[in-house]
Amino acid sequence: MILGAAAARLPLPRVCRALAPVLAGKPPAEVPACVGAAHSQLQPYIAGQRDTLFTVVTVGAAGRGPRMDAKLAALAGEPDFAGRTMGDLVAAQGRATAETLIKNGYPVRTIHLARLDAASLGELLMHFMLETIVAAQLLGVDPFDQPAVEEGKVLAKKYLAGGS
Description:
The chain is mainly α and 164 residues long. It is built from six helices and two strands; from the N terminus they run ααβααβαα. The chain is 43% helix and 7% strand. The radius of gyration is 21 Å and the shape is elongated.
């Protein structure tokens, strides 16, 4: 995770408005409002159909990262964040996300990684690849036949070659 002044400019799901100023070391008025916070992505699911299985992946983050200054936390309207680390926030949000989904009737599985490194990420990706293959086989789908992907490749090559 990138911290500091760059936090307010992240192109990824952004840190909420309350935290961006704390991380940037600036009063809230000086940092543009963040859009697309990860937790807001839950709302369409909660309000929609109950046809999704969620996997919440968390990492051992609690206690890690910079601590939030009490004055800046108060300025951001979150005095309870004072002295907490960014890792504390990440851990709490992961737990809260899973609990929210469960309380709203969704099947949820959680996977916790003690650390995030090349080995653990590779293991997780391999797990999901094998899981996809097994699930496809159980559903009678060929997991290695991707006609839409192949069509996209053919069209991309055509366009690059100057075709319309």
